[in-house]
Amino acid sequence: MMQYLLKRVLQAVFVVLCVAFIAFLMFNFIGDPVANMAGPETSLAERAQMRASLGLDRPLPVRYIDFLAKFFQGDFGVSYRLNMPVSTMLAERLPATVELAACGILLAIFVGIPLGIYTAIRGKSWIAQGLLMGSLVGVSLPTFLIGMFLILIFSVELGWLPSFGRGETVAIGWWHTGFLTRSGLASFILPSITLAFFQATLIVRLVRAEMQEVLETDYIRFARARGLRQKTIWFREALKNTLIPVMTIIGLQMGAVVAFSIITETVFQWPGIGLMFIQAVNYADVPVLATYLVLVSIFFVTLNLCVDLLYYRVDPRLRAPGAAK
Q1: To 10 degrees, what angle do helices 273-282 and 286-314 make?
Q2: What is the DSSP string of 269-312?
Q3: What is the pLDDT of residues 304-321, one digit of tens each?
Q4: What's the CATH superfamily of 86-282?
Q5: Reported pTM
Q6: DSSP 8-state class, residue 324
Q7: DSSP character for 164?
Q8: Which of 31, 70, 141, 230 sits at a 20 to 30 Å CA gap from 160?
Q9: Helices 182-215, 143-150: inter-axial angle, 10-degree rounding
Q10: What residue segments make up the domains of the chain, in order of their start?
């Protein structure tokens, strides 16, 4: 177990360092932050002074090492656009993204898994066929189109829900939450559905395919021959083995929810780190861009590590001698 864990941790650290290097290297060529910050009347000497104050006159490898050293100390640099610490910007916007992603993930799991089970065991019913058609639409449509469609119906035509913003929030220490106010809860509904729609439909189709495959195996036929009840076969024998591969996909999709919340936050003008990233792209704000990608990569890698360990725990084949190799 310890050897397996150490191997996965070393792989995770290597991936994060590679992502940090690629992000830092790539974003240093998307534009000149000094040109965005300086006005038309700024002289060349003033521009050179601004470049030196931002550390942009130093070699790229030196800036990268300095970025890594400060990053792992909790110092993410200063935003070129707003001239404020990136850590302060993250503290202001991270709660919005975390709460939205949590709602999206929970909604996708608690809707996708039961519907996937239903479509697998009642595949010939008209309800299951309708759900499969709906899941195909959900997988095919882009996220921004789903969000705009929901805004058109529930905000513009019916006027039931707000179309943008986070609503009123309540401060609990440094954390600002919208779960404790009526307008905040109302503001969560449309973005959460938009963010969860693709993930839920993907989980439905995945659970259905895995469960149908498990139901055709020999040990399920043997369970039927033993006279076990149908519900026992479905929910104790088949479901247990269905969820083992599904855990991996759900873990990856949890990371994707955070990474791709950019689109949802842009459509609904949700004040999270995804919208902060889009605004930083327009101004070549390298500290914000690099910090965002490194944090997302750490989140992805941590989730994958947790899924690997959980997979190792629930699948006895991985604990067999020589299986880790």
Answers
A1: 140
A2: T--SHHHHHHHHHHTT-HHHHHHHHHHHHHHHHHHHHHHHHHHH
A3: 777 777 766 666 555 555
A4: MetI-like (1.10.3720.10)
A5: 0.78
A6: T
A7: S
A8: 141
A9: 130
A10: 86-282
